[in-house]
Design brief:
Cofactor: Zn(2+)
Subcellular location: Cytoplasm
Number of helices: 15
Subunit structure: Monomer.
Main location: cytoplasm
CATH superfamily of the largest domain: HUPs
Number of domains: 3
Protein name: Cysteine--tRNA ligase
Length: about 475
């Protein structure tokens, strides 16, 4: 059987995957901070986690999958390089929308799960909310306190990175280059901290301002720091040492190294064996951001007439740990490719022509299966896996074998190929008139004007394809 290899951020190498307790695998993915809608950049990370879970199951492993919801303690200073400064994102959103922080968390958690389902992501065995695990986080801080690697300053209880290295003999920040951080480079200096790398485990509430989310603790009224939740919840559900921790590459600089330090500082054991990080999604070659006007959500995708599964297909065209550039043209191409794939799968499903396979065709079928497994087991190489699927669909093997392969491969790809059915729809009169207008302009050689009409048609949820057999109209709604 083809062995599974993954790029481990901890060792910076592609390694053979060897679970701690086969065939069981424990996997934790850092989920969203639920103060706003998740972007298509965020969802690239969650699709990576989904593909990994599916690939593990495809290889016969029994996966225990946990994802968290951060609904307290994630401060805005994280964007500037110090996650212990700034305002709680939930509190900021509550003021923006004139709601309570609890209301904000509930609304955006539900919104996330709706988009999660649209992208056909594998449901976690446990969705763990930070606010449901305050006691677990306090208990972990107590262990660190007992081990002598915490200290108190006016704004909270902090993790002592230097004492951690002394007491455990471990190096802090192996996942990143945190040893190169210079105090005050990007953020206001907190002079009360012993070391600029130290981070908050528990933050004290401002006595002058009542928070929606605050708790009594042995150290004072306050709330947990951002990092402690993932250590507490992952170890609660997966044990003090588990197989895989996944997340976006932005978490590799501070959040994940801090998880490692506080977990291993408390238990004295190795925290996680394999760290998997997905690369950023760019938009039109730039970093995505609201200030740049290129922050898109699943709803934005749908308003343009595209389906969430077209976005999923787009993600699959790039390797998870390599940059991927989103454009509306690339999404359109992905939608067209997915539509064509669905048509071929539907045709294979309806053409019941199974006969006994010749030796040549049996080898082809087996070859496609082997090539697909080799692709996904080579560090989740989804572009190569898609290519194998297309090769199979275009081959001369019997239709039912094409269909069987497509459904087998879709256990990893997650494109809902088993649910493909012929789409019947009516073209609104307004759209019909636009189609006629476009055809007239094309015959008159006015191609720029015709293209503008086509864009107008697409905005209304219909796609035109010029084929050798004539014009074809499709809908995404």
């Amino acid at each position: 059987m083809t062995e599974l290899y993954l790029t481990n951020s901890l060792t910076r190498k592609k390694e053979k995957f060897e679970p701690i307790n086969p065939p069981n695998v424990g996997m934790y993915t850092c989920g969203p901070t639920v103060y706003d809608y998740a972007s298509i950049g965020n969802f690239r990370t969650y699709v990576t986690g989904d593909i990994l879970v599916r690939t593990l199951k495809y290889n016969g492993y029994q996966v225990r999958y946990v994802m968290n919801f951060t609904d307290v303690g994630h401060l805005t200073g994280d964007n500037l390089g110090d996650a212990d400064t700034g305002v709680d994102r939930l509190v900021k959103a509550a003021k923006r929308e004139r709601k309570t922080a609890w209301d904000i968390a509930k609304f955006y958690t539900e919104a996330f799960l709706k988009d999660f389902e649209k992208l056909n992501l594998t449901k976690a065995d446990t969705f763990a909310k930070a606010t449901d695990h305050i006691k677990d986080q306090m208990d972990l801080i107590k262990k660190l306190e007992e081990n002598g690697i915490t200290y108190k300053i006016p704004d909270g209880i902090y993790f002592d990175t230097i004492e951690f290295e002394k007491s455990t003999g471990k190096k802090y920040g192996e996942l990143s280059t945190l040893d190169q951080i210079k105090e005050g480079a990007r953020v206001k200096v907190n002079k009360a901290k012993k070391n600029p790398r130290d981070f908050a485990l528990w933050k004290f509430s401002d006595p002058s301002e009542k928070r929606d989310m605050e708790w009594d603790s042995p150290w004072g009224v306050g709330f947990p720091g951002w990092h402690i939740e993932c250590s507490a919840m992952s170890m609660k559900y997966l044990g003090e040492t588990f197989d895989i921790h996944a997340g976006g590459e932005d978490l590799r600089s501070t959040h994940h190294p801090n998880e490692i330090a506080q977990s291993e500082g408390a238990t004295g054991k190795k925290f996680v064996k394999y760290w998997i990080h997905g690369a950023f999604l760019k938009v039109d070659g730039k970093r995505m951001g609201k200030s740049l006007g290129n922050f898109y959500t699943i709803t934005d995708i749908e308003k343009k007439g595209y389906g969430a599964l077209a976005l999923r297909y787009f993600y699959l065209t790039g390797k998870y740990n390599e940059p991927l550039n989103f454009t509306w043209d690339s999404l359109k191409s992905s939608q067209q490719a997915l539509d064509k794939l669905n048509e071929q799968v539907l045709a294979a499903k309806t053409q019941n022509t199974r006969t006994s396979l010749s030796e040549e065709k049996r080898k082809k079928v087996d070859g496609f299966s082997s090539r697909f497994l080799e692709a996904v087991n080579d560090d989740l190489n989804t572009p190569r896996a898609l290519a194998v699927l297309w090769d199979a669909m275009k081959s001369n093997i019997p239709s039912e074998d094409k269909y069987d392969l497509a459904l087998s491969f879709d256990e990893v790809l997650g494109l809902k190929l088993s649910e493909v059915q012929e789409i019947k729809f009516e073209i609104p009169e307004e759209v019909g008139k636009l189609i006629s207008k476009r055809e007239k302009l094309r015959k008159e050689g006015k191609f720029d004007e015709a293209d503008n009409v086509r864009k107008n048609i697409e905005e209304k949820g219909f796609l035109l394809e010029d084929t050798p057999e004539g014009l074809r109209v499709k809908t995404f709604k």
